Amino acid sequence: MVAVESGTAECQYCYVLRPNRSLSWRQNLGVFGGLCLVTLMLVAPLVAMGFWLVLPFAGLELLAVGIGLYYVTCRCHECEVICVAADSIRIERGRRRPQQSWVLTRHWARVVLTGCPRQWYPSRLQIRAQGRAVEVGRFLIEEERCELARELTRCLRANP
């Protein structure tokens, strides 16, 4: 999802990129808790009948699902911010605060959208300047990535 924020004194254009997520953190915890409850309700009668070996495997299954759900939820809370100022482009990436940051010269910057020739993989959107390239919008769908490339190209061509 791409959100465009109005310019500030230091930043003419500001693009905030976030992946689409269907559930919040609390809702994911609720889904995982419900899955744990259902699994334990199915395993409890088997343990009561003497098939106690089912319990560790059910626990391992829930652990694997929990780790996978945690990883996906953390990745869905990533955010990229692209701020285009009069003479520079600042790109920041992170979850709660910027964990990675790049500053590129606006006058040398260009937007490059590279597609896969076989259509198997999504395209790659990069902002390149002076031998450096930063990939942005890795989690966007193809239409959003193409629209962002058009917007960034238009923004960079505009006079500061």
Automatic annotation (TrEMBL):
Keywords: Membrane, Transmembrane, Transmembrane helix. The chain crosses the membrane at residues 25-44, 51-72. Pfam families: DUF2244. This is DUF2244 domain-containing protein.
